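Example record

One chain of 613 residues, shown exactly as stored in the release files.
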Amino acid sequence: MEFLSKIGAVVQRILKEEFQLEVDSKSLLFNETRKEFDGDYTLVLFPFLKTTRKNPQELGKLIGDTVVQEIEFVQSYNIIKGFLNFEFHVSFWLDILKQLDDNGSFSLPNNGNKVLVEFSSPNTNKPLHLGHVRNILLGWACSNILSAAGYEVVKTQIINDRGIAICKSMLAWQKFGAGATPQSEAMKADHFVGHYYVLFEKKFKEEYSNWQSSEEGGTVYQNLRKEDQSEEAFFKSYKNKYFNDYSALGAEAKSMLLKWEQNDVDVRALWSKMNNWVYQGFEETYKNLGVTFDSIYYESDTYTLGKDIIQEGLSNGVFYKKEDGSVWIDLEDVGMDHKLVLRSDGTSVYMTQDIGTARKRYEDTQANGMVYTVADEQDYHFKALFETLKKLEEPYCEGLHHLSYGMVDLPTGKMKSREGTVVDADDLLKEVIQEAKNNAVERGEIESISEDERQKIYQLIGKAALNFFILKVNPKKRMVFNPAESVDMQGTTGPYVQNAYVRIQSIKRKAGEMDLSKRMEYSDPEPIELDIIKKLNGFLSTLQIAADQYDPSIMASYCYELAKLYHKFYSDIRILGATEESAKAFRIALGNSVARTLQEGFRLIGIEMPNRM
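Predicted structure tokens for this chain:
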């Protein structure tokens, strides 16, 4: 903030002139003054006490006296231990509000950086679910925040459209589908394909259960079990081995994958048909969530990438080859282990294709930064990937970030895709919209408007409930999503923030056409009005922090705090009933500034504002 820079410049000069101490501006720590103390902004003195050989009172008085004398908008100061609290003139804050109204911006200047943000990246064997929703909303909000913070942003995803899981759903449809289609079953297309993925697991479990009670299964148990290991424990741990070595369904699925890799015409045709069904479903879900992408990559195109880069790395010593022909990278110097990058038979692992995909994306976009929105289960993988790209001296290697996030649970516990116990994204959105409708009907405040308008409002409130509940939590934290809590009008929720905006729109409608220029005559604002101005002034610094930390919860929290201030203002202060026209005009104008700021803050996290609710 420019006004803090002015104070900082004075502090730097004092430290240099009085103590021969050169201090970088970044070393000066300014915070908003805590509510229990007088002041607007606080300078932390502790870092300079030892070097200056002064106690807090002495150093604080020296700096405070000079700042008050030289900077016209600083009215007074006080010292609490090692904290120097500056209080500004009221006129300064009124000028700040005018500047925000006249020239205020909700974005930062272009910083010359281009960043690619990857998010969603689903598998084509099942619909998007609650876990994907957190991924999608984080990636979308992060993209918006980075764009507003001055980055050129490319939004992308990589669709995992090949592999054994996809073959499982294909095989189940081929064996048990009897030619059914999403249209014939009146099912959303991605849900239709997901049904067959679950069906495969059901049929496989039946097969496995029968095998366990067979003579062959009994022999395997007797020969391989650990001492005193129960049948249940043994067969639970043996499941993957059974799939690979004994299962008829497993053999068919693996055969189908092999045929896919050999470009078998029939298998490829089935794969294309079922994937296209899924893509139709994905597009519908993305549209409902308000999300779009600038580019899409497909694993079926990228899984062979990276092999040439591995050969380059072998020639210049980045990688090494073992006796069996497999290729590895030694990451011990960065506290990690040795990482496989190419199998002994020359086939790729995920690391191989991720290396190749990163380079292709750079070639396609020239982005000098890449953000990967992927769950924290992959923390180690991305750390290894980034370190590998650094050793390869890729030109974008210093701009890599893993937007790691925790899993999302329901009040009932964890979800499992193969068992069909996940909450589909579409069903989740319908549920929160229904909760929003139930609340609105109970309040009865929008009965007078048309049914179409009411339905749109339910949609906006429901989507706000979902987005805000997901995004208000720091990405790194595991969370529990509760649809009923998400629409609470009195909680830390999206609808609570929306309601502040709606109240302002209601006041504007009641005020009608009014000359707000009289607000300039208002010179004695209430403390809460000053608090609101200070919060409004903090939008751009909040935006910068949210962008630097890749954390949309910072913007969500800012919007909630601003809305909370306005709700208190609305409750405690007479607005349309103000005795003076200048106060009335000022309070309406202040509300307008709050509304614009809330609207923009919510836009960044993917939420629209209703005019009524």
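Notes: The first strand starts at residue 30 and ends at 32.
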